[in-house]
User: Fold this.
Amino acid sequence: MDHAYRFRRIGTREFSQIKALFTSVFTREPWNDDWSDEEQLDLYLNDLIGQSNSLTYGLYDGDALIALSMGRIKHWYTGTEYCIDEFCVRTDRQQQGVGSLFLGEIQAHMRELGLTHIFLQTETDVPAYDFYQKNGFLELKTNVSFAKRV
Assistant:
């Protein structure tokens, strides 16, 4: 890893940095998520980083958080997985290899923890789809996501 980058496990102590990076990425194209409800945003982020099985990683350039992965550890019959709920790279650092480098560091740390798989979902019409394929992720053709508004 480039000497300027620092990879580490992060959590609730870095909440403000996590919140700033998350909103700076996902409120822009191509996602355009509306996170204007601060209370809902705080609840969501705490759901991801504040639980006993939460697993959150950050990549820093100096003191600046430039990449973020938030998810959870899930024990499954095929082994223990890292289920990534949110993964992002600061917009001005995308398309520079930072995301691939970050994924490599995550996978190395996962092996140290004894985790065997990464599971995530993304949409097929966003740049993340090609990014994950380029980084060796396989599309699960028999899986489908369902949602229902109640």
Remarks:
- The beta strands are 5-10, 54-61, 64-76, 79-89, 117-120.
- The radius of gyration is 15 Å.
- Residues 39 and 45 are 10 Å apart (CA to CA).
